[in-house]
Amino acid sequence: MPELPEVEALAYHLREHAVGRTVTRVDLASLAVLKTVTPQWTELHGREVTGAGRHGKHLDVEIGDLHLVVHLARAGWLRWIDAPSPAPPKPGRGPLALRVRLSATADEATGPGFDLTEAGTKKGLAVWIVRDPAEVPSIARLGPDALALDRAGLAAALTGRTGRLKTVLTDQSVIAGIGNAYSDEILHVARLSPYATAGKLPDDALDRLAEAVQEVLTDAVRRSVGQDAARLKGEKRSGLRVHGRTGLPCPVCGDTVREVSFADRAFQYCPTCQTGGKPLADRRLSRLLK
Asked: Known catalytic residue: 222?
């Protein structure tokens, strides 16, 4: 799932390549992704792209006085195309959900564009066309942005939270931008158990967590921004130390990276670095052994 660093990099790519161009046409290949009725997608035609930004894990493309807001969900992606096919896409065929075509410059024969795509059968990609991003319900509910949180802000966000630290870090209404992968990385760097109670961290643990949030996300943004959209997924994987590395040695201590699995997701951690050497119970594995 694209998280804060990847969405920040996609916004940067659009600022570099799309801003200043005019939307010449929008092709909607999947009506299900569009979560607003008005303004219609055809109202984007003829408007200039004036900016691109981010709200948590939402991408915000500013087009005239309208905003094309995108949440890529688990399997969605933005693909930049230097020369889109002139033929309109066929609805319901393949992963393509929406295509935005842009104007050409004086030295281009045809204008570029970008596709919003989603792989797999479980669909979650969502698109809103609004006049104010705050009209998007999931943006209105966002907590403070993870990159804007200092130690005091993090303490305030976690105060009174009785849930597990892993769960709270990925709750977008508490802290915006952190997902499954980077929460694993942050907890590993901070040397904290995913099952620690979020609102009961001692001062030294809170210090480590605040530093880890900034260190992990800032480094990921630095590595991601400037990359072509097609290379961002590989760049993300190459920088991960525990997430997605089940069975491999921890790069810090050499212990085996372990996994806890749930119905539709899993997280990874190092027992030596994070849980005092004690493996966490994997309920899915426990059920299989009964």
From this structure: no
pLDDT higher for 122 or 13?
Answer: 13
- Residue 285, pLDDT above cutoff 60: no
Domain hosting 212: range is 146-289
d(CA 59, CA 69): 6
Identify the CATH number of the domain in which residue 216 sits. 1.10.8.50
Number of H helices, E strands in the chain: 9, 10
Q: Are residues 133 and 151 in the same domain?
A: no
Catalytic residue among 3, 6, 8, 185: 3
Whether 287 has a pLDDT exceeding 50, the answer reads: no
Query: pTM for this structure?
Result: 0.92
Q: Of these residues, 122, 200, 265, 284, which one is catalytic?
A: 265
Q: Catalytic site residue 91?
A: no
Contacting residues for 282 by C-beta, under 8 A, at least 6 apart: 258, 259, 260, 261
Catalytic residue among 21, 54, 57, 258: 57
Give Cα separations from 101 to 56, 242, 252 (angstroms).
26, 39, 46
3 is catalytic: yes
Tell me if residue 265 is catalytic.
yes
SS3 1: coil
CATH number at residue 27: 3.20.190.10
